Amino acid sequence: MKKWNYILVVFLSIITFSILSCSNDDDGAKPIESTDNNQNEDNSLKNLTLYKVDGENIIKQKDFDVTGNALVLQKDIKKHQEIWNLTKKIIPLDYRSKMNEFMIYYGDESEEEGVLGYVVERTKDLSKWQMGIAIDYAYEGGFNAKGELAYTIIHEFGHIITLDDTQVDSSIEESNCQNFYTGEGCARDNSNINQLQKKHWADIWDEFQNANSETEAQAFYDKYKDRYVTQYASTNPGEDIAEVFATFTTREKGVSGNSKAEQKIQIMYDDDKMIKLRNYIRGNIAKSNRNFLPNPGSWKRANSIGDKNKSHCRLHKN
Predict the structure, then answer these.
(1) DSSP string, 163-230
(2) Which pTM does this prediction carry?
């Protein structure tokens, strides 16, 4: 009997630890404690290779234990480098010091809800981030088919630049936060995500919070669709601002009209840093042998809604 009691205690301890370690939603990322296992924080993902970002280059830090097709993709270093080369076209050198880790993983692109890319902070102060890209998705239909991969990288980069230490103070607890609490910390007064939430979410926040089923989330979007650049943007403010940044970047022309969605894009045009980033990314189109940007709003997840409450175990599910 004592033996079974001991086993029960151990089992309950493991379950409790698992629940606590996966208690964050899409925009509530916390630092990953370890990348020593071959399973990503989302159980559907398999880590292949972890790289350190060193300016223009990525330096291999670790290959994970994988088999089958995942092993084939792990060994295809040429593809890893091709993904990184596209990433460099999107993320300027001075921002790569923030994105200090780059993960190539196997996301199983056959799954409709597969994770295309993610970002997660690597330090509690939000100054260092890891970006992960699903290699199987990156080559679905051919490398960067229809600009999908480029859009994913832009979207994930949008998370970093709107949630890093210059935008969010991770030292302030939610109970003491006077601005929008992102999950990572308290948004700073003049941060883009704080502006977006105060101006475009606060007045409908209660309705958003009460939309807990797929049907209710769809009804919420249908009612307020003029506020969002894509349907996916209505998932929550974190996904909204990442989609706004991606639309701002991929759209050739500027603000069109005065809808709520266009007012959000204007927030980007009012920020000199955002304009500089847009110019960098779009400027690289001319240097490329092919147009690597998609049409705004045409990407794979544009016409879907994420689960605002579902835990992705510290990942931003794209």
Answers:
(1) HSTTTEETTS-GGG-SS-B-SSSEEPTT-HHHHHHHHHTGGGHHHHHH--SHHHHHHHHHHHGGG-SS
(2) 0.84
